[in-house]
Each structure stands twice: as C-alpha cells, then as structure tokens.
Design brief:
about 240 residues; cytoplasm; mainly alpha; about 80% helix; Helix Hairpins; 7 helices
Length: about 240
C-alpha cells in the first residue's frame, strides 16, 4: 500500500486513534512525508518527459508512429506533473496553516500558564494592605523631607536681639565720640583790638571755618584711633 493510500485511508498509530485524531506534530510529519514523495514523483516524471522527447527526436519523420507515441506519453507525463504541482501547492498551504495553528495554540497555552501564575502570585495580596503600605511610605517620605529641611535651615543664633535698639545704641556711641572730640577742640583767642565792621564779618566767617575744620580734624583723629584699637584687639 502506498503512502498516499495509507494517508487518505486514515492509516495511523493506535495512539492517534485512541485520542480521537492525530496530533499537530503527527499531521505535520505526514504532510512532510507526502511532500517528499510527490517531489520524488516530480523528478521521475521530468526524467520520463526528457526520455520521450529524445525518442521522438530519434524517430522523427522516419518512424512517425513511434515518434507520435513518444509525444503522447510525454503529454500524459506533463499532465501528471502539472497535477502534482497543484497538489504540492495545496499541501504546502495546508502545512503552513497547520504550523501557524500549532504555534498559536502553543502561544495561547503559554499565555494561559502565565495568567495562572500571575493569579497565584496575586492570591496573597490584599489591596487594602497595599493602600495602607503606600500611605505609610508617603508619610515617611514627608517626615524625611521635613527633617531634611530642618537640618539644612540656617541656625538663627543671636537673631533674638532687636536691630532697631542696636542701631539706636550705635548712634549714641557715635554722638558720645563726637562730643568728646568737641571738648578737645582748642578755639583761637578772640582779638582784643576792635576791627572794622566790614572786615569784621570776614574775620568772623574765617573764625567759624577754622572751628569747623578743627572739629572735623579731631573727629577724624578719634575715628582713626578707634580703628587702630579695634585692629590691635583683632590681631591679638
């Protein structure tokens, strides 16, 4: 019995029959065997066609009857070859469809396994506990941020003193230094002789100028001495 007859008569293993039909792997194996057999049949027919052509050329017009018989056989072989080409195309299409179906089946099966595994993983998860956990994480992050802000904030040591009071005290000290400088100013003696009225005005203005200059000079000297004292204290 040929392979084709066994295939179409349902020849198969006892295991396939007991399961109610062949598995995809078994069906694919049968289709590949059929393709191999038909390919060998093609090679045989192509060889016979070439042989019959050679016979027809050999006899030619010398022996028309033998030449025509050879051409008729060639036509039959070509017809069979064309039929096999169509059959191979159909089998190839069926094999590809079966392979794709088998691949899709395996993909779906693996996806089902993955879904079951995911379901098993999520069985022990409580959404309420997850919400509580995320809330705790958020609260701890807020606490950590507050701690970081407190640590990075500049310490305000000494900021409890009133700046206005300090400025007022500083102005008093400056006024005291100014008064001290005024006490040390030596004014020039007043002339004993009477001066003319007009020149007297000029002398009075000059006298006032000298007094102001002396006051400023004493004040500058006092400030320089104070700065020298502060510099000496800092250096020591």
């Amino acid at each position: 019995m040929s392979k084709i007859s066994k295939f179409f008569k349902g020849g198969g293993s006892a295991t396939s029959k007991s399961r109610g039909g062949p598995s995809p792997q078994e069906a694919l194996a049968r289709l590949r065997e059929t393709e191999e057999m038909l390919s060998k049949k093609q090679e045989y027919l192509e060889t016979r066609i070439e042989r019959e052509l050679a016979v027809a050329r050999q006899h030619g017009t010398k022996n028309k009857r033998a030449a025509l018989q050879a051409l008729k056989r060639k036509k039959r072989y070509e017809k069979q070859l064309s039929q096999i080409d169509g059959t191979l195309s159909t089998i190839e299409f069926q094999r590809e469809a079966l392979e794709n179906s088998h691949t899709n089946t395996e993909v779906l099966k693996n996806m089902g396994y993955a879904a079951q595994a995911m379901k098993k993983v999520h069985e022990n998860m409580d959404l309420n506990k997850i919400d509580d956990l995320m809330q705790d994480i958020t609260e701890q992050q807020d606490v950590a941020q507050e701690i970081s802000d407190a640590i990075s904030k500049r310490a305000a040591f000494g900021d409890e003193f009133d700046e206005d009071e300090l400025m007022a005290e500083l102005e008093e000290l400056e006024q005291e230094e100014l008064n001290k400088g005024m006490r040390n100013v030596r004014l020039p003696s007043v002339p004993s002789t009477a001066l003319p009225s007009r020149p007297g005005k000029l002398l009075a203005c000059h006298f006032v100028f000298l007094m102001i200059k002396a006051c400023l000079s004493n004040r500058k000297r006092a400030e320089d001495e104070d700065e020298m004292k502060q510099l000496a204290a800092w250096a020591s």
